[in-house]
């Protein structure tokens, strides 16, 4: 999942910008997305309180990453 997320992130970045880029967040967000899908499909696998806490942490990490990437020359594709 990590490698596939990296490849997809790099290809998406290449399509949207002609500059040479290095994508480090694509694989991380792919893992977060895969985990969120797993949690939604297997709600009985983890305690509800733990699942909700981890979901909030994933949303917070995504929000912080988006806000930090808004400053400077960062490729958000």
Automatic annotation (TrEMBL):
It is found in: Membrane. Its main location: membrane. Keywords: Membrane, Transmembrane, Transmembrane helix. GO terms for molecular function: serine-type endopeptidase activity. It is a multi-pass membrane protein. One of its GO terms (cellular component) is membrane. Residues 1-77 form the Peptidase S54 rhomboid domain. The keyword Transmembrane helix applies. It comes from the Eukaryota. Belongs to the peptidase S54 family. This is Peptidase S54 rhomboid domain-containing protein.
